[in-house]
Specification:
The protein is an alpha/beta fold. The chain has 7 helices and 10 strands. The relative contact order is 0.20.
């Protein structure tokens, strides 16, 4: 099954969707994120192709679903997509897919992360590539001036201390508002959306749900930066625990994101 309305060829499409059904051997709470790409595809067919908000019909836009790839193949593929002047939209999978995707790109861009968790651990259960270390690995590679996290409401004491010492820039969930998009000065953005940034009442089916989170204002925030985004990933939907709410939101982010860029 392809993502809804993503049936054009690779050559003629500007938007290239693909899945990476990968999760860590040791997930910190729930397992099942590897099932997300196909489940998000399934629920994507719940939506009309026409966006009432802006009058854009996705059937009029060339979108290609390249299917699921291994993490190794995805690193090569995302580079090809960008070199071909197209925009990759990636469905994870655990958040641990994000550093390899970012490190595969040669462009100069900043990274924006929406996440309930700081993910700034040096290692988790001896694994430095864990989803719990995502922001730390990216920060180490691209530096403090090219990464910002939003929506944070969970971190270990050590993460907080390290973030302070190393000048990792982040905004707490309690301080979040869509206007914070104006604080992002990157000309080009890699956007990573961990679905646990939403409150569990909106997205209960995620790998690590964290109460007192964000709601639909996330869409307003993404809309403000959509035209600067050069790559998007959406991670941590966990279908075995999802009644459809998390998957539906993930699919809607993808669909709305494309329509906003085509206004």
């Amino acid at each position: 099954m392809k993502f809804a309305d993503a049936e054009q060829s690779y050559k003629e499409s500007n938007y290239i969707i693909f899945g990476i059904p990968y999760e860590d051997i040791e997930m910190s709470f729930r397992k099942g994120a590897s099932e997300a790409p196909d489940f998000i595809r399934y629920v994507s067919w719940d939506y009309e192709s026409y966006n009432m908000e802006n009058g854009v019909d996705l059937q009029d836009i060339a979108i290609h679903d390249a299917g699921n790839l291994s993490l190794g193949d995805a690193k090569t593929f995302i580079k090809k997509v960008r070199n071909d002047g197209k925009l990759p939209i990636i469905m994870g999978g655990a958040h641990s897919i994000t550093p390899p995707m970012i490190f595969s790109l040669d462009e100069n861009f900043g990274v924006v992360i929406l996440d309930a968790h700081m993910d700034f651990r040096e290692e988790y259960l001896g694994d430095k590539t864990s989803h719990a270390c995502t922001a730390r690995r990216i920060f180490e590679r691209i530096g403090s001036k090219r990464i910002i996290s939003f929506g944070i409401r969970s971190a270990s004491k050590e993460e907080m201390e390290d973030a302070g010492k190393l000048a990792f820039k982040y905004y707490l969930c309690k301080d979040f508002k869509p206007e914070l998009a104006e604080e992002i000065h990157f000309e080009k953005i890699y956007l990573s959306v961990d679905m646990d940034v939403f409150d569990p009442c909106y997205a209960p089916g995620v790998s690590n749900p964290e109460p007192m989170g964000l709601g639909y204002e996330v869409f307003d925030f993404i809309k403000k930066i959509a035209n600067r985004v050069i790559a998007l990933d959406i991670v941590e939907v966990c279908p075995p625990y999802d009644d459809g709410r998390a998957s539906l939101l993930a699919a809607k982010i993808i669909r709305d994101f494309i329509s906003w860029r085509c206004e």
